[in-house]
């Protein structure tokens, strides 16, 4: 995600009451029958109620039927294939913004109820550990946000797009809404003829029946729920070739295709540049979705990054800046999408790296030296740490704060950490580490500890002390090689990310 440097409405955290896991191993059936359904989570420090224990999703099949009005609920069927990792009397799914009509487990009707932001499903019979299960939920998916909820569907001028990061996929479809449980996705969208629907991955075809067309897409790589994308609009889909034949497809409002073409034409070279830094593009396709929407951010949805169309052509944003934001979302395809954070406290691995390549691109292509940006970031870093926590231990989302956990401490604050690391271990080792990181953890999830381990292995020495200070220190450690860099008192630091 990259944030546009201007105010936007606050995004409130999602309120949930605390829940306790059933502790007793005795009389499980009696307890299960008697105890009220309660919301569960996988124990994420920042989002305690995201995800659910007891199963591992392998595939989602999402079907949406769009009426043509983006303020009306879509009809939807979500089918989840999963393996149980423990015996389950109930299965908790995350789902908080739609009406559930029916639930089946393995083809049999199942009872269901809501608890907090969970949909709690009780199958006819207890599900043993280590078994495959299929859950089918018929529901609606409401594109109009409820009070205190933000994210999920984005209403555009001509239809819908999606922005689920970090905790909003379950406002769109029932799921195990945590990046630690990635899965394959098949996404079908039925829309009135005249609309074009596009989703993550490759097209499997479209079928026109009467007044509506159904479009089907499939991801060829596992994906986190937060990275799902569905675009429905009066759109043109433009195809071109990326490096070594990579299919590139962009989705833009039909009326704007000519005006946006100079921007779209940049993507193949940007991919080639990223490949020269870290290795092959990790997915089956790439492209940008330029939507007529006012989100206040751009988002790295897998294989199809979301941008606000109006950024391009706005004289407030010079082209070098927009280029760097395009590269920011592109680099997330490696850092954040292919290699996903195991927990949301690892999000600095996403944003630190995306900011790094955004800055490196500006240095190499627009003569804006990274060292200047990093010196400015150093000046502000202590304040960012005080406001948002150190990069490795971000503060939880707070009421009234912008965009949940996405604060400067995990953007330029974390890129500064990577700069310190490059200063510490040298350019060759740093570049080797970056390539190894995305290769070793491709299509998977990884932790901060994994990064520290790999960096130490590449450098040939224990970097735990170095990382501890930079990741978790209240104050920014001295910058290796720049002993003169100092924290700057409030008001004196250059304001970052405002384009000039
Ligand atoms: Zn980002």
TrEMBL record:
Coiled-coil residue windows: none
Q: What is its EC number?
A: 3.4.11.2
Task: Give me the reactions it catalyses.
Answer: Release of an N-terminal amino acid, Xaa-|-Yaa- from a peptide, amide or arylamide. Xaa is preferably Ala, but may be most amino acids including Pro (slow action). When a terminal hydrophobic residue is followed by a prolyl residue, the two may be released as an intact Xaa-Pro dipeptide
Q: Which CDD domains match?
A: M1_APN_like
- Mind telling me which Pfam families this protein's record contains? Peptidase_M1 (PF01433), Peptidase_M1_N (PF17900)
Which Gene Ontology molecular-function terms are recorded? alanyl aminopeptidase activity; metallopeptidase activity; zinc ion binding
Family membership, please give it. Answer: Belongs to the peptidase M1 family.
> What name does UniProt use for this protein?
Aminopeptidase N
Q: What broad taxonomic lineage does this protein's source fall under?
A: Bacteria, Bacillati, Actinomycetota, Actinomycetes, Kitasatosporales
């Amino acid at each position: 995600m990259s944030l546009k440097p201007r105010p936007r409405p606050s995004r409130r955290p999602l309120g949930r009451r605390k829940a306790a896991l059933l502790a007793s191993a005795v009389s499980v059936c009696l307890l299960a029958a008697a105890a009220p359904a309660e919301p569960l989570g996988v124990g994420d420090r920042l989002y305690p109620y995201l995800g659910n224990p007891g199963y591992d999703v392998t595939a989602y099949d999402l079907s949406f039927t769009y009426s043509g009005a983006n303020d009306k609920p879509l009809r939807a069927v979500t089918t989840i294939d999963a393996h149980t990792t423990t015996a389950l009397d109930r299965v908790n799914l995350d789902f908080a913004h739609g009406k559930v009509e029916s639930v089946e487990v393995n083809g049999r009707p199942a009872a269901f109820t809501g608890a907090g932001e969970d949909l709690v499903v009780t199958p006819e019979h207890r599900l043993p550990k280590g078994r495959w299960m299929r859950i089918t939920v018929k529901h609606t998916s409401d594109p109009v946000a409820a009070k205190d909820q933000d994210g999920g569907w984005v209403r555009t001028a001509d239809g819908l797009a999606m922005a689920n990061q970090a905790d909003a996929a379950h406002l769109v479809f029932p799921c195990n809404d945590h990046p630690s449980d990635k899965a394959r996705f098949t996404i079908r969208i039925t829309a009135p003829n005249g609309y074009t629907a596009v989703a993550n991955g490759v097209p499997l075809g479209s079928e026109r029946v009467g007044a509506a067309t159904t479009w089907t897409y499939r991801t060829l790589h596992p994906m986190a729920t937060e990275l799902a994308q569905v675009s429905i609009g009066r759109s043109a889909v433009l195809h071109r070739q990326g490096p070594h034949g990579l299919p590139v497809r962009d989705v833009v409002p039909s009326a704007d295709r000519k005006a946006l073409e100079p921007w779209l034409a940049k993507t193949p070279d940007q991919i080639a540049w990223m490949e020269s830094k870290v290795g092959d593009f990790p997915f089956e396709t790439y492209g940008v979705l330029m939507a007529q929407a006012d989100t206040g951010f751009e988002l790295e949805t897998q294989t199809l990054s979301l941008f606000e169309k109006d950024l391009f052509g706005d004289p407030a944003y010079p082209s070098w800046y927009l280029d760097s934001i395009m590269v920011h979302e592109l680099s997330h395809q490696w850092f954040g999408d292919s290699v996903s954070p195991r927990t949301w406290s690892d999000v600095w691995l996403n944003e630190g790296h995306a900011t790094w390549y955004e800055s490196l691109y500006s240095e190499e292509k627009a003569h804006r030296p990274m060292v200047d940006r990093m010196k400015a970031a150093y000046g502000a870093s202590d304040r960012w740490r005080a406001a948002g926590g150190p990069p490795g231990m971000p503060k939880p989302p707070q009421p009234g704060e912008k965009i949940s956990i996405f604060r400067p401490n995990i953007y330029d604050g974390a890129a500064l950490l990577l700069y310190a690391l490059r200063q510490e271990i040298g350019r060759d080792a740093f570049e080797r580490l970056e390539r190894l990181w995305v290769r070793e953890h491709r299509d998977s999830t990884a932790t901060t500890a994994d990064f520290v381990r790999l960096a130490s292995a590449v450098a040939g020495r224990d970097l735990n002390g170095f990382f501890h200070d930079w990741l978790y220190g209240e104050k920014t450690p001295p910058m290796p090689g720049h002993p003169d860099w100092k924290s700057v008192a409030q008001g004196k630091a250059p304001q970052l990310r405002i384009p000039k």
